[in-house]
Amino acid sequence: MDSIAWSDFEKIELRAGTVVEVKEFPEARKPAFKLLVDFGEQIGTLRSSAQLKDLYSLEEILGKQVICVINFPPKQIGTFVSECLVTGLYREDGSVVLAVPDKEVQNGARLG
After folding, report:
1. How far apart are CA 103 and CA 30, in angstroms?
2. 58 within 8 A of 50, measured Cβ to Cβ
3. Of 22, 44, 68, 72, which sees the most CB atoms within 10 A?
4. DSSP class of residue 84?
């Protein structure tokens, strides 16, 4: 494993946001949802594609607070542009468990 400097970690904008919209993403190569995540007034809402269908339904994700990387460049995924990366942890079977705050925090709160 490569080590990084603290200054490298400080460059990553890991922020809490609330999922305010979830849609099916049938055009995705791997089963995924289209998400709209609210990061509060300063940042606003950002879109993301997330491969969460193995463990989550639309209803389970809507309203959930998630931790996202918000300073990656936008990524074109088929016809959709993803503006942030929703973080999660991989299980042995390849399914993704969302990385979430265990208590509610303000949208836009920075992890660090």
Report:
1. 31
2. no
3. 68
4. S
Token readout for 94 is 């390849």
Say what the pTM is. 0.94
Radius of gyration (Cα) for the chain, nearest Å? 14
Residues 6+ apart with CB under 8 A from 6: none
Beta-carbon contacts of residue 95 (< 8 Å; ≥ 6 apart): 54, 55
How long, in residues, is the chain? 112
**Taking a C-beta distance cutoff of 8 angstroms, is the pair 52, 94 a contact?**
no
Dihedral in degrees, nearest 10, Cα atoms 9, 96, 78, 20: -80
DSSP string, 73-100: PPEEETTEEE-SEE-EEE-TTS-EEE--
Question: CA distances (Å), 51 to each of 2, 44, 106, in order?
Answer: 27, 23, 25
pLDDT tens string 4-27: 999 999 999 999 999 999 999 998
Q: Which CATH architecture has domain 6-92?
A: Beta Barrel (2.40)
